[in-house]
Amino acid sequence: MSSSTNADEKKKESFNAEAASLLVNNLRATFASGTTRSYEWRASQLKALIKLCDAHEQQIIDALYSDLAKPPLETVAYEIAMFKNSCKAALKELKRWMTSEKVKTSIATFPSTAEIVSEPLGVVLVISAWNYPFLLSLEPVIGAIAAGNALVLKPSEIAPATSSLLAKLLGEYLDNSCIRVVEGAVDETSALLQQKWDKIFYTGNGRVGRIVMAAAAKHLTPVVLELGGKSPVVVDSNIDLKVATRRIIAGKWGCNNGQACVSPDYIITTKDYAPKLVDSLKAELEKFYGKNPLESKDLSRIVNSNHFGRLTKFLDDEKVSGKIVFGGEKDKSKLRISPTILLDIPRNSLIMREEIFGPLLPIITVDKLEESFDVINSGTKPLAAYLFTTNNKLKEQFVMNISAGGLVVNDTALHLAVNTLPFGGVGESGVGAYHGKFSFDAFSHKKAVLYRSFLGDAPVRYPPYTNIKMRLLKALVGGGLLGIIRALFGLS
C-alpha cells in the first residue's frame, strides 16, 4: 500500500467532531476577513466551476457511469449542461442580485429612505444526494457562492466515484480557504451536523431530512430540505397519446431509470382509457429500450444492492406481483431492473405507500378523472405533480386543487430547467426552494435598513404624553394625511 493511500485513510479516519469543529472555525475566520463578500471573488469561483466542467467532462461522465451506469447523454444534458447554464445565469445576474433594493417608507418615518440589503449568511453546509451526484452537489454551491458564503460540501458516499472526483476537482479549482469538500458516510456527516452552521442545505429522503432538521434545531440553524415524495401523473383521454407517452417515459425511465426526485411515481387515469395508455407505453418503451431492456445502454442501473432489494420487495408484495402488465425482469448480479408497468394497483399496497425511486410505474384507475384530485390529496404533498390534458377547466382545477412543490401540464420534469421558477417541496416533500435567484436568496439574509437625518424630529414621540400626542401618533402610524390634519385640529 502506498504512503499516499495510508495518508488518505488516516485523513478519513481522523475526521471526527473535533476535526469538523476546527474546519468550521477556520472557515469562519476566512469569512470574517471579508474574502467572500466581493463581487470579484464570487464571480471568479463561478467561472472556475465552468472551467472545471469544460476541462473534465469525460471524467465526470466516467464517474457517473461508474456509480450508476448513467448514459453519457443523461450526464452531459441533465447534469453538466444544466449546471453550466445555472453558473452562466448566476454570473449574468450577480451584480443585480447583489444590488440593494430601494423600498418606500411611510409618513411615520418622514423624512427617511429605506433599502433591503442582501448579505451572506456566513458558513453553510451542503449535503448532497447520490442520484444526480454532480448536479445536486454543485447546484446549491452556486447559490452559496453567489450569495458570498464560505461553505462545506458533503457529497453522497453512495456515489463514491463522483464524490472522490468532486473532492479532487473542487480542491484544484476553487478557493480552499473558503470552500471545502468532506467525503465520508454516516460518521463524517454526523460530525458535521454537530457543528453550528449558518444554514444547512440537504438533498435526499425524508428520514435523513428529519435527522438533519433535528440537528439544526439545536443551534436554531435554518434549513433547506430538498426531499421527494410520490409524484403523480394524471392522464386525460383527450390528448396526443403518443407525445404524452414519450414525455412520461422521458421523465420516468429517461431520468436515471426512475431514480429521480421528480420522476413520475404513479399514473392516474380512467378505467376506460387505461388499456390504450398501457399499449402506448409498451410500444414506446420497446422502441426506446429494445426487446431486452436489461441489456440497454440507455438505462441506468439501480445504485446498489440495498435499493435493488427495496424495489424487489415492492414487486414481491402479494398485492402487486400479479399486476405486472409489462416488464418486471431483474438481474441482481448487474443491479438492473427493466421498465415495469403495473395496472390497477391497490392503494393500500406497499408500493403505493412509499416513494418508489426506481423503474416501476403503477397505474391507478378511477371512474372520473376529477377523482384523481382526491387520490393525490389523500397522501402527503408531492414534490411534483403532472397533468396531461387539453381541457382548460381541468388545468385550472389541477392548479387550484393540487398542492405540490411544482406542477407541469403536458410534460414531466421540465420545470427543473426553468431557473426563473423556484424548485422545492412543500410539507413532507421539502422546506425552502432554490434555482436561479431563489438559490441566491436561499443563502442570503435580507437585511432591512432605514436611513434618517436629524431633521424632522417630532416632539410627539416623547413624554410627557398628552391626548393630542396620542391622536397624532395614532394618525401617524395609521399613515393617513387626512387623519393627521383632523388630529391637529382635535377632530374625531
TrEMBL record:
Among InterPro entries, the record links this protein to:
Ald_DH/histidinol_DH, Ald_DH_C, Ald_DH_CS_GLU, Ald_DH_N, Aldehyde_DH_dom, Aldehyde_DH_NAD(P)
Q: Which Gene3D superfamilies match?
A: Aldehyde Dehydrogenase, Chain A, domain 1 (3.40.605.10), Aldehyde Dehydrogenase, Chain A, domain 2 (3.40.309.10)
**GO MF annotation terms:** aldehyde dehydrogenase (NAD+) activity
BP terms from Gene Ontology: aldehyde metabolic process; response to abscisic acid; response to water deprivation
Q: Which reaction does it catalyse?
A: an aldehyde + NAD(+) + H2O = a carboxylate + NADH + 2 H(+)
Q: Give the UniProt keywords, A-Z.
A: NAD, Oxidoreductase
Which PANTHER family does the record match to this protein? ALDEHYDE DEHYDROGENASE, ALDEHYDE DEHYDROGENASE TYPE III, ISOFORM Q
Q: Spell out the family assignment given in the record's similarity comment.
A: Belongs to the aldehyde dehydrogenase family.
Q: What is this protein called?
A: Aldehyde dehydrogenase
